[in-house]
Design brief:
Layout lengths: L10 H11 L4 H10 L4 H13 L5 H14 L4 H10 L4 H15 L3 H12 L7 H13 L4 H10 L1
Length: 154
């Protein structure tokens, strides 16, 4: 039997299909459903019901997202920026980061050092080379002190 088109599927079926693959923030699901021409009031009702049933949770999404970004070697600044783009509230961002830090024993200074060591063997012989390494870590979302620590440790 061929899969039903999005026109024949309810907003709930579409959302559950998306959530079956990975966690989504409420804002992401809202955007996806709106792109499929679902009425705004239907989207709100659907997402409220999914949240009540525990099928969608911004807190769970944020925690999963933070964990995946730490494994990719990204710093707090970049993680917060990406969570904001996905519609996660700042308080929830801070809570998710703190939760992952505690569970995974994340040391941002050590993570910055590891990320730098994977990409570069030396801290750079010239100011230009050091600046290149600093920009690399800054683009990954690390704080100034973490960048300095990573360069000093390399």
């Amino acid at each position: 039997m061929p899969p039903a088109s999005d026109q024949q599927r309810s907003p709930r079926e579409i959302a559950i299909g998306l959530l079956a693959r990975r966690e989504y923030s409420r804002a992401e699901l809202e955007h996806r459903l709106a792109r499929k021409a679902v009425a705004p009031e239907e989207i709100d009702a659907c997402l409220d019901a999914l949240a009540e049933q525990g099928l969608q949770s911004d807190a769970r999404f944020a925690e999963s997202f933070v964990r995946s970004r730490v494994l990719r070697g990204q710093g707090v600044r970049r993680i917060k920026s990406e969570l904001s783009q996905r519609g996660v509230e700042p308080a929830l961002q801070r809570r998710a980061i703190a939760e992952v830090e505690a569970q995974e024993n994340v040391d941002w200074f050590e993570l910055a050092r590891e990320v730098l060591a994977r990409r570069f063997q030396t801290p750079g012989d010239s100011p230009r080379e050091r600046a290149r390494r600093e920009r690399f870590l800054a683009s990954r979302g690390f704080e100034f002190e973490q960048i300095r620590h990573a360069l000093a440790s390399l």
